[in-house]
């Protein structure tokens, strides 16, 4: 099968005119690829977590690229023209925002904050506003507003299920693509792309890896999250 592209954690293969395969690798990276390792089975965990969460979004009427699974680490998805923008929604402050702005770790955002970043590791994913996105022909203001609305609806679905698990969704990142004039949620939704903590502040997501915890502890957390998700979803 023809490989169309390969990123840090996924490979994309051509399936037919309307579909591609997304194969989740076992690699884990941080710092725009500066740090990289292999965690055996991580690709399966992220593929399964993403599939389950995409199905929940679809159930709530949010269009995603998810079609089905080819095998345990390979997703069949709609072929999208991807927009190279990372859209982040934050319920609680952590990560880049507390470095960038005078905002304290753990501060709550009511309503949540949505931010756009250019997907560009060499430039460390710079923050974008509507003007930048229009000039760079990434999306117009109308599309950006629509994306913000979708982010809020996705947040409702994700926050609800994660709260049922006894956990808190701090923030998450989505990527969008276009097909037949529609904006569709693409990429993945896993512990690589969201921050989840328990009520005591224990970290369950990729921040464990970013902070240098042992790889087996990172994996155990991804396993625990998927188990708990399966038990409530
Ligand atoms: O991860 P970092 O502190 O650099 O960035 P952030 O803007 O605080 O990240 C917000 C959310 O987006 C977190 O859940 C990250 O895991 C996720 N993210 C991502 O999935 N991919 C990136 N390249 C950057 C952030």
TrEMBL record:
Short name of any one Pfam family annotated for the protein: SAICAR_synt
Reactions catalysed according to its record: 5-amino-1-(5-phospho-D-ribosyl)imidazole-4-carboxylate + L-aspartate + ATP = (2S)-2-[5-amino-1-(5-phospho-beta-D-ribosyl)imidazole-4-carboxamido]succinate + ADP + phosphate + 2 H(+)
Pathway: Purine metabolism; IMP biosynthesis via de novo pathway; 5-amino-1-(5-phospho-D-ribosyl)imidazole-4-carboxamide from 5-amino-1-(5-phospho-D-ribosyl)imidazole-4-carboxylate: step 1/2
Catalytic class of the enzyme: ligase
Recorded name of the encoding gene: purC
NCBIfam families in alphabetical order: purC (TIGR00081)
Molecular function as annotated in GO: ATP binding; phosphoribosylaminoimidazolesuccinocarboxamide synthase activity
GO biological process, one term: cobalamin biosynthetic process
EC number: 6.3.2.6
CDD domains reported in the protein's UniProt record: SAICAR_synt_PurC
Top-level division of the source organism's lineage: Archaea
The name this protein goes by in its record: Phosphoribosylaminoimidazole-succinocarboxamide synthase
Domain SAICAR synthetase/ADE2 N-terminal positions: 4-213
Similarity comment text for this entry: Belongs to the SAICAR synthetase family.
Keywords: ATP-binding, Ligase, Nucleotide-binding, Purine biosynthesis
Species this chain originates from: Metallosphaera prunae
Keyword Iron: no
InterPro entries reported in the protein's UniProt record: SAICAR_synt/ADE2_N, SAICAR_synt_PurC, SAICAR_synth, SAICAR_synthetase, SAICAR_synthetase_CS
